[in-house]
Amino acid sequence: MPFKLSNRLEPLKYAIRDLVPIAKEVEKESGRVIYLNIGDPLKFDFDTPQHIKDALSKAVEDRWNFYSPSEGIQDLREAIAYKERTFNNVQVNPSHVIVTAGVSEAINFVAAALIDAGDEALIPGPAYAPYVNFIQLYGGKPVHYRCIESEGWKPDLNDIKTKINERTRFILIINPNNPTGAIYDEHVVKEILDLAATYEIPVVSDEIYDRIVYTEGVFKSTASLTKDVPVIGLNGFSKVYLMTGWRLGYIYVKDPTEKYVDNIVSHLNKLARARLSTCTPVQKAGVVALRGSQRHVKEMIEKLRERRDYSCKRIDEIPGLSVVKPEGAFYLFPKIDLNGKFKSDKDFALSLLYEEQVLVVHGSGFGEGGENHFRSIFLPPIEILEEAFDRIERFCRKKSA
Ligand SMILES: Cc1ncc(COP(=O)(O)O)c(C=O)c1O
């Protein structure tokens, strides 16, 4: 029997982890690498709040160790509706919520449910890479719409408009954004919704960083603003509740027209059933995360704000780099302007890794619009950021000399 692997996985790439094997080699040869590539707060001085950890142990002791309903335990779906109502002003019916193994699984579900071969989806340029992967996995074409750096990475409405066609199956908003850290103004979100209404296309809104914002009141959930467009909301526990390794997320459908919601939910539920369920004790802990103390969120933002401000100040002092100050999440997306010193942004990232042992992600790994940029996290404590930016500064000064 000839052994053959599928062709379908050929195009899949994940820039955020692609350079890690090289970094491990560099580490063996030239000492400590500072990893600024992965957005995982738990790798630094952030930890899952104790009451959430206790809830997980208790769930296991209380024998919540069975398969849960595929769409998630009812308690959690209700807690998610409560959370969306309380923090995002979104009225969502718990029966329109599906619990997933992280937002990553939610992205897979949404792409599988909406994309057939030859279909297109409009996604930000640059965008969090798994959207590209999962759309391609189902034979679709991710089409990046322009985001305007000089206007705080605001989506270009005209560009979206010119790229909509009869094969466009959804428009994606990532807000707050990864990799740029942008938060979209309410009127921008409304304009995207209006366009979606005109062409009768649903909007998918990834809001995993919804509470990691540095100015209160700026972020508005897409589903809270929709009047006539179905919004498929994606959210999770990894970032705001410091539960990256626990793999818990969710999808909800908010459809003011009520025309499409049942179909979308039942389509998504087919996938949910095909993979049985997500981890039941983790779901029990998720209820406590959403309904219990939220004190850690404020503490996390205070730490991150100081780290963001420090990082932006350092970048502003480095020749050849400039950055739009992020308003949310924990990423910086600086522009590299080193007059042809590098063949590409990947060349920049690799040279920085070899010469100064700092690992960042090349901007083109986030698709169109990411070229000539890199993405760095600002999660580490100031001492580590200081060392990292000293190295980046030395590197850029050498190259610009
Ligand atoms: C915009 C965005 N969506 C989804 C994810 C995946 O999150 P999860 O850990 O819930 O799978 C990430 C992780 O970095 C992200 O930045």
How would you describe this protein?
There is one protein chain. The protein is of the alpha/beta class and about 400 residues long. The protein has 2 domains: about 15-45 and about 295-395, Aspartate Aminotransferase, domain 1 (Alpha-Beta Complex); about 50-290, Type I PLP-dependent aspartate aminotransferase-like (Major domain) (Aspartate Aminotransferase, domain 2). It is about 40% helix and about 15% strand. It is built from 14 helices and 15 strands. The protein has helices at about 15-20, 20-30, 50-60, 75-90, 100-115, 130-135, 155-165, 185-200, 220-225, 260-275, 280-290, 295-315, 345-355, 380-400, and strands at about 35, 95-100, 120-125, 140-150, 155, 170-175, 205, 230-235, 250-255, 320, 330, 335, 360, 360, 375. It has an 8-stranded mixed beta sheet, with helices on both faces. A 3-stranded antiparallel beta sheet has the order 11-15-14. Helix 3 runs antiparallel to helix 11 (about 280-290), helix 4 packs parallel to helix 11 and helix 5 runs parallel beside helix 6 (about 130-135). It starts with 14 loop residues before the first helix and ends with a helix. About 50% of the residues are buried. The structure holds pyridoxal-5'-phosphate (PLP). Pyridoxal-5'-phosphate binds next to helix 5.
